[in-house]
Write a structure and sequence with these properties.
The protein is an alpha/beta fold. The protein has three domains: 67 residues, Histidine-containing Protein, Chain: A, CATH 3.30.1340.30; 67 residues, Histidine-containing Protein, Chain: A (2-Layer Sandwich), CATH 3.30.1340; 65 residues, Histidine-containing Protein, Chain: A (2-Layer Sandwich). It is built from eight helices and ten strands. The strands form three sheets. Strands 7, 8, 9 and 10 form a four-stranded mixed beta sheet that branches. Helix 4 packs across helix 6. It is flat and about 50 Å long. The chain starts with a helix and ends with a strand.
């Protein structure tokens, strides 16, 4: 079995492990490490999740996501909006950020309102994407004015948050520009990279995190 066939097999196995319908309704093709996903899933969340699974498989260079979302012709934009708003109310951050608004046009959802940090925006987009009939989600969420702070203070807050975790802070470089935090430097493994990313996203005042952290090569 050549490398591409091994990649296809590994992606398929991961899809089946995560959710049985992925294995049935999503097909995988790999040519020279470039993966194409195609098939049908129920919502945008499943489509995005399938791509993340494929990207996590060793040997994958690029993923083209051609998965189609099954759209019931009876579902209207009004129905989609109701589903989105219902999901947003179930968000773990609902009590912190209150009601968010949503407009829907031809299955495309636009979110608007105020959030405190990047983690809350990511969660809101994720909740919206799980609603039946959603084709795409556009975020027009904005940071609350009370959490808009200068870049130096924001970096200090991120450093304080990262210091709570078992990370090698001297090997990390943190910068900020108008609410966008960039992480670079080195950590020991992928789990630490993801942990640093999530920690930075949870800091109030952080609108976006760009993660350039590299994994230290083992000697």
């Amino acid at each position: 079995m050549n490398k591409d066939k091994i990649i296809e097999k590994n992606i398929k196995e991961k899809l089946e492990k995560e959710r049985v319908s992925y294995g049935v309704d999503v097909n995988v093709r790999c040519i020279n490490g470039h993966v194409t996903l195609y098939g049908i899933v129920d919502n945008l969340s499943e489509k995005n999740h399938a791509q993340k699974i494929a990207e996590s498989v060793e040997g994958v260079k690029k993923v083209e996501n051609n998965i189609t979302i099954a759209i019931d012709s009876k579902i209207t934009d009004k129905d989609i909006k109701q589903g989105v708003l219902r999901n947003l109310q179930n968000s773990k951050f609902h009590e912190e950020i209150g009601e968010l608004g949503a407009d829907v046009t031809d299955g495309t959802v636009t979110l608007y309102g105020k959030i405190n940090n990047a983690q809350q925006e990511i969660e809101s987009i994720s909740q919206a994407a799980q609603a039946m009939g959603v084709k795409s989600v556009i975020s027009k969420l904005e940071l609350n004015k009370e959490h808009k702070i200068d870049d130096v203070s924001l970096v200090n807050l991120v450093v304080q948050k990262l210091s709570r975790y078992d990370l090698s802070l001297p090997d990390l470089v943190i910068t900020a520009n108008n609410g966008t935090v960039t992480l670079s430097g080195y950590v020991n493994n992928l789990k630490e990279k993801e942990l640093a990313n999530e920690a930075a996203q949870s800091v109030n005042g952080v609108k976006k995190v760009i993660n350039h952290i590299k994994i230290r090569e083992k000697s």
